[in-house]
From TrEMBL:
<feature type="domain" description="Cytidyltransferase-like">
    <location>
        <begin position="79"/>
        <end position="207"/>
    </location>
</feature>
<feature type="region of interest" description="Disordered">
    <location>
        <begin position="313"/>
        <end position="370"/>
    </location>
</feature>
<protein>
    <recommendedName>
        <fullName>choline-phosphate cytidylyltransferase</fullName>
        <ecNumber>2.7.7.15</ecNumber>
    </recommendedName>
</protein>
<keyword id="KW-0808">Transferase</keyword>
<keyword id="KW-0548">Nucleotidyltransferase</keyword>
<keyword id="KW-1208">Phospholipid metabolism</keyword>
<comment type="pathway">
    <text>Lipid metabolism.</text>
</comment>
<keyword id="KW-0443">Lipid metabolism</keyword>
<dbReference type="GO" id="GO:0005783">
    <property type="term" value="C:endoplasmic reticulum"/>
</dbReference>
<feature type="compositionally biased region" description="Basic and acidic residues">
    <location>
        <begin position="317"/>
        <end position="329"/>
    </location>
</feature>
<dbReference type="InterPro" id="IPR041723">
    <property type="entry name" value="CCT"/>
</dbReference>
<dbReference type="InterPro" id="IPR014729">
    <property type="entry name" value="Rossmann-like_a/b/a_fold"/>
</dbReference>
<dbReference type="InterPro" id="IPR004821">
    <property type="entry name" value="Cyt_trans-like"/>
</dbReference>
<comment type="function">
    <text>Catalyzes the key rate-limiting step in the CDP-choline pathway for phosphatidylcholine biosynthesis.</text>
</comment>
<dbReference type="GO" id="GO:0031210">
    <property type="term" value="F:phosphatidylcholine binding"/>
</dbReference>
<feature type="coiled-coil region">
    <location>
        <begin position="238"/>
        <end position="265"/>
    </location>
</feature>
<comment type="similarity">
    <text>Belongs to the cytidylyltransferase family.</text>
</comment>
Length: 370
């Protein structure tokens, strides 16, 4: 069941391909699966700790029968071996492919010892016990063989009832052979898997060696001694000095970033203030022109007040239809009593002296009374 679900999950993953124009033709997709608890509670057992198999004779399963599917009590026994130093995702993916080769697979993983590894491949970062424990905690592994042989023999294959051997198809030259899996391929027991590009134990070690100073300073800062790191006294002082210099640089960088943020905030606020000032100044100028401009409200108010003042101090004009003084009818004249005698005709008034007669009209009487 687990193999089928893993196989189905693997088949739904499609690789990314770049088109001629540089665009992605088909992105990597992953079909969602129902929620379920598929994690294992116990690590895989070691082969030498298991009970011996039943007394049935060992009969291999061919490729067609394995692909077609076997009974539940007779899984296809697939063997994959390796060093598995600094266990990483590339190892896990290779074991996943081996587990998913057939519908019903029992995966046996062989891990070589330190002696064989140091003899044929080189020094390892992890010792054999650490490598055994790392592999047996991989979820795809059903059984772990400790101290696995460097070259597989027919006796080893028969003892562990192995049907197929899984490994990448690249010829693996070692121990005086151009390909240690050549006899397995010739026997039709080889099942190829694909390597995961970009990740390997050698790549990880290369990263550590390349950034050696960084990791030494990191571990010194975490409390490791120079003796534990195999660092000389002078280099230890050099690394401590570099760490102090880096701390100062980080502080300066933080201050610069904070100052940039402060300046940016001040600039934003100043821009807002300038915009508000411009708006207020426009509003003030508009109100000023509206009040004191050529056609402003103040000019109209002064003009209106001037008109009212002139109207108030100017005399009231007679109606146009009223008659003038000359057009009025003459009023009857009266003579004073002491001028009842006949008097000579009147002479021009301003140039002669003597008795004068006065003509009094009704209008003159009105003026005198006034």
């Amino acid at each position: 069941m687990e193999a089928q679900s893993s196989s189905g999950l693997l088949l739904t993953r499609k690789r990314r391909r770049e088109g001629s124009n540089g665009e992605t033709d088909e992105a990597e997709r992953l079909v969602k699966i129902p929620r379920c608890t598929v994690g294992l509670k116990h690590p895989a057992p070691f082969a030498d700790e298991l009970e011996p198999a039943d007394g049935k004779p060992y009969e291999r399963v061919n490729m067609e029968e394995a692909k077609r599917g076997t009974p539940p009590d007779r899984p296809v026994r697939v063997y994959a071996d390796g060093i598995f130093d600094v266990f990483h995702s590339g190892h896990a993916r290779a074991l996943m492919q081996a587990k998913c080769l057939f519908p019903n697979t029992h995966l046996i993983v062989g891990v070589c010892s330190d002696d064989l590894t140091h003899k044929y491949k080189g020094f390892t970062v992890m010792n054999e016990d650490e490598r055994y424990d790392a592999v047996r905690h991989c979820r795809y592994v059903d059984e772990v063989v400790r101290n696995a042989p460097w070259t597989l023999t027919p006796e080893f294959l028969t003892r562990h009832r192995i049907d197929f051997v899984a490994h990448d198809d690249i010829p693996y030259s070692s121990a005086g052979s151009d390909d240690v899996y050549k006899h397995i391929k010739d026997a039709g027991m080889f099942a190829p898997t694909q390597r995961t590009e970009g990740i390997s134990t050698s790549d990880i070690i290369t990263r550590i060696v390349r950034d050696y100073d960084v990791y030494v300073r990191r571990n010194l800062q975490r409390g490791y001694t120079a003796k534990e790191l195999n660092v000389s006294f002078i280099n230890e002082k050099k690394y401590h000095l570099q760490e102090r210099v880096d701390k100062v640089k980080r502080k300066v960088r933080d201050v610069e970033e904070k100052s940039k943020e402060f300046v940016q905030k001040v600039e934003e606020k100043s821009i807002d203030l300038i915009q508000k000032w411009e708006e207020k100044s426009r509003e003030f100028i508009g109100n000023f022109l509206q009040m004191f401009g050529p056609e402003g409200a103040l000019k109209h108010m002064l003009k209106e007040g001037k008109g009212r003042m002139l109207q108030a101090i100017s005399p009231r004009h007679s109606p146009d239809s009223s008659p003038t003084r000359e057009e009025r009818s003459p009023s009857p004249t009266f003579r004073l009593p002491f001028f009842t005698k006949t008097s000579p005709p009147p002479s021009p008034p301003p140039h002669h002296s003597g008795a004068r007669g006065y003509l009094i009209s009704e209008d003159d009487d009105e003026d005198d009374e006034n």
